[in-house]
Amino acid sequence: MKFSVLMSVYYKEQPEFFRLALESLVNQTTKADEIIIVKDGVLTTELDSVVDDFSGKLPIKVVALEKNGGLGNALRLGVEMCSYDIIARMDTDDICRSDRFEKQIKFLSEHIDIDIVGSWISEFDGKPENIYALRRLPCEHDDLVVFAKKRNPFNHMTVVFRKQSVLNAGNYKHFMCLEDYNLWVRVIMSGARLANIPEELVNVRAGLNMVSRRKGLKYAINEYRLQKEFLDIGYLSYLEALINTLIRVPVRLMPSCVLKFVYRLLRR
């Protein structure tokens, strides 16, 4: 099964993190047939140099956007530009386990009824070996559909999906910080089937500083918009959407110190 890897990079990202992410793709036991890198606006010289350095090691194809339009818009175009029906997502600061693609591509080849497969993750802060948390999610379709009514059913950087299933659901949309969650619910509503592999196949650069950045009024408004959309498309009842809003919106407005404390409790 030939497959594409889809990444998006923008000027604020760290070149050394990007380099480690691409190195983990070089080391895969099952190699990607193409790697689509969407440059979401003009990059720094250092980030451009990383892309140039790996162009001889990986089958990289660059899609360059003139202006930064956000992750959802970049991934929407990236999906359209991918040559193959199987697309693997990858973030530019995370590290794939060497057998990640081997396991996920094999899973999709053996489960032709599954449209999206993700995995569990380990989370690290600073150095990759400083793992401080795991995020383990349900693995079976029915459990994921129920889980998605309250929380994101996938670790976004781990998903491998069939391109047509994402296009059938309307592809990615701009939805600051929640692009993937919005997409997965639409994918569910379109009749697609989901799964997770119960292994940590990606080591994710998270950390408490990242948590504190994802707060504020804009993020709170986006949480409200997300629940309203889930209500409008019939995925949630009014009561479910109301409860989710009352829980999720205040979290985005918490002071950083409180938010970090809550995150530590949830990740233990």
Automatic annotation (TrEMBL):
Listed SUPFAM superfamilies: Nucleotide-diphospho-sugar transferases
Transferase keyword on record: yes
Domain of life: Bacteria
Gene3D superfamilies: Spore Coat Polysaccharide Biosynthesis Protein SpsA, Chain A
Domain called Glycosyltransferase 2-like: residue spans: 4-162
Any GO MF annotation of the entry: glycosyltransferase activity
Alphabetically ordered keywords of this record: Glycosyltransferase, Transferase
Pfam families assigned to the protein according to its UniProt record, in alphabetical order: Glycos_transf_2 (PF00535)
UniProt family annotation: Belongs to the glycosyltransferase 2 family.
Record-given protein name: Glycosyl transferase family 2
Species the sequence originates in: Seleniivibrio woodruffii
Taxonomic path: Bacteria, Pseudomonadati, Deferribacterota, Deferribacteres, Deferribacterales
